């Protein structure tokens, strides 16, 4: 039976996050590929030398010494706004309970017993509980910042207000990489996906540092940017997959417990 609570039950929230992560990645790569195919510049669009934002440029003109012309700029910019909105929604839905889904059922049970023991002893907090709350808060804030940055990138093109576009992009780069590292550190002892998230976060973070230090004055600026965006985007998929899989385990465990209780009652 579906919960009648005004907010989704934790398992439902996890499914929403998992579904959003998968859809956000599919639509981003589709929009990027479509924009690259429709490119009308003097040369073929290059994933290595053209920066990502060239696909969302509002005008066909020379920009920073290169001629950019993207007929599907509206599609690509809309894709970024959609992904940014998804990040903000995830930031609103994520909680300690949702992030705990990466743990096996035994770990979840241990957390529940700890919480009950704290309540019985009249203790308000415990290091493990505080750490979980801090991680959830950090991830929510970082996702919110990243989502807002992506929306700015999609709404304010590189050839409209360049500094604002760049600020939004940097906010997304830095917050996205940091969120993956923080979440990976929290999950690394519970699932191998934690190590994957940390690796993706480190790659994105290192590429962001290079971008800031060089001001993107490198031989392959497009490749450098994609060394940031792709790991972050794939990290969101990994996060969604772990959460969705955990939700399935939780639902199965709850059904099994209910069935066992019903059989004992009869």
Description:
This protein has 266 residues and is mainly alpha-helical. The chain has one domain. It contains 8 helices and 2 strands; from the N terminus they run H-E-E-H-H-H-H-H-H-H. It has helices at 10-37, 73-93, 96-99, 105-121, 127-155, 162-187, 193-214, 221-265; strands spanning 61-63, 66-68. It has a two-stranded antiparallel ribbon with strand order 1-2. A hairpin with a 2-residue loop joins strand 1 (61-63) and strand 2 (66-68). The longest helix has 45 residues, at 221-265. The chain is elongated. The two termini are 21 Å apart. The relative contact order is 0.14. The model is unreliable at 1-7 (pLDDT under 50).
Layout of strands and helices, then pairs:
Elements: H1 10-37, E1 61-63, E2 66-68, H2 73-93, H3 96-99, H4 105-121, H5 127-155, H6 162-187, H7 193-214, H8 221-265
Antiparallel strand pairs: 1-2
Helix pairs in contact: 1-2, 1-8, 2-5, 5-6, 6-7, 6-8, 7-8
Helix content percent band: over 70%
Number of helical regions: 8
Q: What does the largest sheet look like? A: 2 strands, antiparallel
What is the radius of gyration computed over CA atoms, rounded to a whole number of angstroms?
21 Å
Question: Quick gist of this model?
Answer:
This protein is an all-alpha fold and 266 residues long. The protein is 72% helix and 2% strand.
